[in-house]
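Researcher: Quick one. two chains, 920 residues in total.
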Amino acid sequence: MKALLPALALILLAPTVSAAPPSPQALMATAAKLRDQALTGDNTAYATVESLTTEVGQRIAGSPAAKRAADWGVARMKALGFENVHIEPFPITAWSRGAESAEVVAPFPQKLSITGLGGSVPTPAGGVEAEAVIFPTYRALLDAPMGSLTGKIAVVTQAMIKFQGGDDYGTLNANRRAGPSEAAKRGAVAYLLRSLSTDDTRLPHTGFMNYAPDAPKIPAAALSTPDGALLDNMAKRGKPIRIRLLLYSSSFPAEGFTVSGEIKGREKPDEMLVIGGHLDSWDLGTGAIDDAAGIAITTAAAKLVADNGRPRRTIRVYMFGAEEIAASNIAFAAMHQAESAKMVVGAEADFGGDKVLRVNLPPGAAETTFGKDLADVLSPILIRPGPPALNAGDDFNNLKGVPFFGLRQDGNRYFDLHHSADDTLDKIDPAQLNHAVAAWAATLYMIAESDVDFRATMPK
Amino acid sequence: MKALLPALALILLAPTVSAAPPSPQALMATAAKLRDQALTGDNTAYATVESLTTEVGQRIAGSPAAKRAADWGVARMKALGFENVHIEPFPITAWSRGAESAEVVAPFPQKLSITGLGGSVPTPAGGVEAEAVIFPTYRALLDAPMGSLTGKIAVVTQAMIKFQGGDDYGTLNANRRAGPSEAAKRGAVAYLLRSLSTDDTRLPHTGFMNYAPDAPKIPAAALSTPDGALLDNMAKRGKPIRIRLLLYSSSFPAEGFTVSGEIKGREKPDEMLVIGGHLDSWDLGTGAIDDAAGIAITTAAAKLVADNGRPRRTIRVYMFGAEEIAASNIAFAAMHQAESAKMVVGAEADFGGDKVLRVNLPPGAAETTFGKDLADVLSPILIRPGPPALNAGDDFNNLKGVPFFGLRQDGNRYFDLHHSADDTLDKIDPAQLNHAVAAWAATLYMIAESDVDFRATMPK
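Model:
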């Protein structure tokens, strides 16, 4: 951020009447320049992912590593030139994995590759052993009558389909989130699902789950995709399958840490773009694509804008501290809803490190001159306008009344890696990461340097 | 094997003078017919892999599962119509994995994904913790002076290159086999290497190692490839890296089981083709590519030949019982060297389930009319003559005086999966497996039905 105006100059400028924004032509020219700088730049974003994954690694919320990550975040933001860098702590219920294992006991004794779902209760000390009922789809489980699974382990082996947009995660998410309680309502003593994964590695993918208030809490875990297929093949033999599951997980009160930093606006500091990624990760990988990449993209893009000179509006960047356990969104809204009127727009980068395919603006904005100008700036790097953005990522989903945008990335590889031990640095493609930074930098600049008002163009 | 002649007919035919082999044209026509039957056939080989991986799974030599695998092998061979099916037991020193873990203790605490090498001694009960010395190549370790690693953990992070023929496994094999003792000679207390893997999953790849008689026995394990890269990146920071390794492995005397079956020759039953794959696997995956595939290819090919009518010579198929720990080769030579003069040719399928690229005949044979005829039969399915076969797979490498052939498969994917938890059924491509069966069936038929004498055409 070498090009920032000295503080003295700001003081001299601030009391004067706000200057008009640049002409659309000038705005587009500078946005294109920042875009191209990112594509051929110094790989700042990659260095951020490398640093966080190497020096901290996994950083599940509530762990000692999560605190180290927050300290890392403060240092990183300061090193990149952000102002007003600080930690916002908030209370969470943390979850910790312990020893875990599963095996087919009969008729074909084999170990299974599993991992507990975030939030799962533990099994009894010796584990739980029971006959398994294999459901090829989640719907088949929901169709099972109440009481039909009494004393059984329910297993859903439905496979996830690879869509470029990651669509099937939405379709199948309830398998993981609600499956344990649906199985428990029918009498099951444990729940297994085939991982929400599009890969064929023998690494299970974890993720958060919620217990329904009206069902017993039963332990729940994910099978690797080959193990899901294995159980399907065993089930074809028609013999009863007995499974033993052991999960020594625990939940406990702890603190989450969201890191905040700003590029203060030179003309309209009280008009803010609020963006970010999440700092916490699951505990299996090193959280490279989920979500060191989002942290890296948003901080690098904001830095590129700042390096060009302080923008008219403020850009505030968050490293959210407990996305995976659905806690930083609640804390964020509680702390910042009051200043939502100042938020010009919000957006979170939380879909990996691959290239951007679509720019989704707030409803109504794509059809405006501003929306068309931004589309023209992004078109040369092969980005198309997408549907209106109705949300901005999990950490903003408790915030009301703020327009959102999204830069939708290519998700072909995302669910190969997501929430698994395979989420590591080597999965980051520096060229694609730079492409995402380019899209973010151009978009942030255009919004921060202009007077665009997304609330005004929203359909009522 | 529906087409086998009834026993009575055999008795009537046997005492007569041996019939001449078919004309080369007839031989080639039938070989081509068998080849095409395999390509479009009933997926017998795939069913064999599915059955072994589903009903037995991992079957490391000396484990209860290995005995189940031998029983499975007997039943499978009988079901496929083999004769004289029996188990040949032999003594082994078995190795069993226990709990295992590793972590960076400082300066950046992180868990590492590792797995013990086969044959490794355990660590002390609390594990071993020491400063790590990171060597980018195995040669750099060998260049380290004696005594320079005293009290340290030696780590070799050299990456494996993906060659279609799997060449780098030969180049880097000493890293795993001899590395522990080379490190121990220099004073190291433990040894880690980046897995001999061409994949980027966070699954470590195991494999056998040997201790040198003149070095202390130190525990040895393989890192996943992302963890090898992680340690490289940590090392760049220049701070001492401390690692803790825990391996609770054990070795014990046990029994290995090789399964043998035959298609008895109708004219020259004492002239044998000896082929096979290995029944044992490593303990991490379900041994689909290594080596259920080899078992499946060779038994399916022999069955195809038999289904066409009993061949002139005998085809004997082995399911070797302890390839991974280098024990069935010794037992096989001890039991069968005496009948090696009867062995027309030997060949083992132990390079996965993908398509065949080359046919390697015994030295001198490719230039004969027989060799050219076989090449013509295999050419339409895109197989080319390769270099002379100087060996026939690990289980034959203690056998002397037998000509060998090899049907060399595409190894592009092999070392992605080899010796890791990722070696599972879903990695088998039925179409490619059928291609390998086609190549084996045509080759076996041509050798078994002709009078070809590879010993006669070998250069002296």
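The interface with chain A takes residues 50, 53-58, 65, 108-111, 113, 200-203, 225-226, 229-230, 233-234, 237, 285-286, 420-422, 424-427 of chain B (CB under 8 Å).
Researcher: Thanks, that's what I needed.
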